[in-house]
Design goal:
The chain is mainly beta. The protein starts with a strand and ends with a strand. The protein has 2 helices and 9 strands, in the order βββαββββαββ. A hairpin with a 5-residue loop joins strand 8 and strand 9. The protein has one domain: Beta Barrel (Barwin-like endoglucanases).
Length: 118
Amino acid sequence: MLRCILRAKIHIATVTESNLAYEGSITIDEAILKKAGILPYEQVMISNLNNGERFETYVIPGRKNSGEICLNGPTARKGVVGDKVIIFCYSYIEDGKIGRFRPKIVFLNDSNKILKVK
């Protein structure tokens, strides 16, 4: 049996831009994506700590080491610049491998610089 398990989490990122005119998605600094193991165009779930919104979209890589976290298109209605968000990425894992599996968690500071990876 396959179970949907948290594979990666970007913990408490700060929204740096909100772009309603864009076609959709969330832009995330490429360096953060690489540390989390999240691929471009991969599906993510975002939880906004400021307003309680929770939504799904896909990732677009932003400029490396820019600290960019931009809500694009309709997701721009789910938060504003300065909001704190948690970004989750899930994968299906076989039952027999779950006990050994640990998600990768990337902790950020208020400027979206990587503090540590767990």
